[in-house]
Every structure is written in C-alpha cells, then in structure tokens.
Hints:
Residues 44-103 form a coiled coil. Keywords: Coiled coil. This is t-SNARE coiled-coil homology domain-containing protein. By secondary structure, this protein is an all-alpha fold. The chain contains 1 helix and no strands. It is rod-shaped, with a radius of gyration of 53 Å.
Amino acid sequence: MLTQLIKIVGNMQTDIQGMKSDIQGMKSDIQGMKSDIQGMKSDIQGLQSDVQGMKSDIQGLQSDVQGIKTDIQEIKADARDFKAKSEERHEAIMNQFKTLENDQDFIWEKAVRNERELGNIKRQLS
C-alpha cells in the first residue's frame, strides 16, 4: 500500500508540475495579452487624437464655407445693385438720345422751312 501511495503522490507531483507549467504558460499568455491590450489602448488614443484633429479641421472648413457663402451673397447683392444702376444709366442715356433725336428732327424741319422761305424770297426778288 505504501508503494501505491508513493505512486499516487508521484503522479500527483507530476500533475502538479504539469499544472505549474500550464499556469506559467498562461501567465506568459496573459502578460502578452496585457501588452497587446496596452498597444490597442495606445492605438485607440492615437485614433481619438486623429478624430479630434479631423473634427477641428471640419469645423475650420465649415467656418470657411460659411465665410464663402457670405461673400457670395454680398457679391450677388452687389451684382443686383450694379445691374439696377446700369439699367438706370442706360434708360437715362436712351432718354438723352431720344431728346437729341427730337432736337435734330426739329432743327432739320426748321432748316428745310428756312431753305424754302429763302427759295421763295429769291424767286420774288428775281
């Protein structure tokens, strides 16, 4: 019976040694996992930093776009004002031309009348 006990104890010691070896392997694996997790945390922090930078860039772009929209609205308003003023000036110039045309017609009529009267006077004098 003593030999059986010794065998059992020997087997138990072998099993315990195997378990110790397995536990040591698990500890090593856990340590590797901890290292991997730490690396992932570092990567996540880097990604969060990148995302924050992108958010900042997007806000800057949105601000720029808003400024451009404002500039475009101002340009459109200026263009409308310019067009209205141009049309007013065009109308004024056309009115001036019409006045000049009427004056020219009046002058021609008067010149023709004067020429006729001169012709009549010349015939009467001759």
